[in-house]
């Protein structure tokens, strides 16, 4: 790993800590939101280099829509709408996904900016932090551990605000759906060595989710 790559990984680890723990909500740490943006900009040449690889491997390009379909089918439809609804009914739990409700609220307040954040910037940043950084750093030492750690961090980040900081521990029941998504994104990155593949699938899946909310008058 060259010096430039090492600094990118180190920066990614630092930003990953603040991002996945949702500490960026603390006013004194708002500066890291700016650093996140700068990090994505600095990583643009790497993203562009991976995008150029599609010319040599069309199969990798096909994995983007296939990955999005897997996310929507396995995570959103099978797990969230079928399995989880049965689990909640069996346990007598009546609760919404606080992360989803928070995203809906923010999109209602600022649809253009939050739509961009949820469907483009957010997926790219998360893939750089969880797959390129977390998964990438651990994979060479232990591939199975890389899947587990990166997926757990990804899942934790999506429920941390409500479950940990808000004290609504019942939100932990929503963590598996994000872990499933994290495992699928990690698989896409592991098989292609191309960060554009999980990022593209992430963008498509989030965009489909937002579109379905609009069509169902949720937003």
What's a concise summary of this model?
The protein has 219 residues and is mainly alpha-helical. It is built from nine helices and no strands.
Give your account of this protein's structure.
The termini are far apart. It is globular and about 50 Å long. The protein has helices at 3-20, 31-42, 44-52, 58-91, 98-109, 111-139, 143-165, 175-192, 196-215. It is built from nine helices and no strands. It has one domain. By secondary structure, it is mainly alpha-helical.
Element layout with pairings:
Layout: H1 3-20, H2 31-42, H3 44-52, H4 58-91, H5 98-109, H6 111-139, H7 143-165, H8 175-192, H9 196-215
Helix pairs in contact: 1-2, 1-6, 4-8, 4-9, 5-6, 6-7, 6-8, 6-9, 7-8, 8-9
List key phrases describing it.
219 residues, mainly alpha, globular
